[in-house]
């Protein structure tokens, strides 16, 4: 009789983190550091995000930073 062993490698969340990860490790660490230092995210919050959720937050942060830079630029000109 065959013995069936279920191998557990972290479940679906680890699978999707590996499959959907499209950035380098250095870029991910740099981004995590920036999010923690400048935007007050905790590392556990960042690591518990689903990859697409992290992409949404990063897109919103980039948009916010661009808007702030534009506001500062207009303020300095006028």
Question: How large, in whole angstroms, is the Cα Rg?
Answer: 19 Å
Task: State the separation between the terminal residues, measured CA to CA.
Answer: 82 Å
- Mass-distribution shape: elongated
pLDDT below 50 for ≥5 consecutive residues: which ranges? none
List how many beta strands DSSP finds: 0
User: Number of helix segments?
Assistant: 4
Order of helices and strands: HHHH
Strand-pairing-aware structural class: mainly alpha
Report the sheet-strand fraction.
under 5%
Q: Count up the domains.
A: 1
Amount of helix: over 70%
Sheet having the most strands: none
Structural description of this entry:
By secondary structure, the protein is mainly alpha-helical. It has one domain (23-77). It is built from four helices and no strands.
Summarize the structure.
The chain contains 4 helices and no strands. With 78 residues, the chain is an all-alpha fold. The protein has one domain (23-77).
Strand-helix topology:
Blueprint: H1 11-20, H2 25-39, H3 43-47, H4 51-77
Keywords, separated by commas or semicolons:
single chain; 78 residues; mainly alpha; 4 helices; elongated
């Amino acid at each position: 009789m065959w013995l069936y062993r279920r191998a557990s490698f972290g479940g679906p969340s680890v699978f999707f983190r590996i499959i959907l990860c499209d950035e380098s490790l250095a870029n991910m660490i740099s981004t995590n550091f920036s999010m923690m230092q400048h935007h007050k995210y905790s590392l556990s919050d960042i690591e518990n995000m689903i990859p697409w959720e992290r992409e949404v937050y990063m897109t919103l942060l980039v948009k916010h930073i661009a808007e702030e830079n534009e506001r500062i630029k207009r303020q300095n000109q006028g």
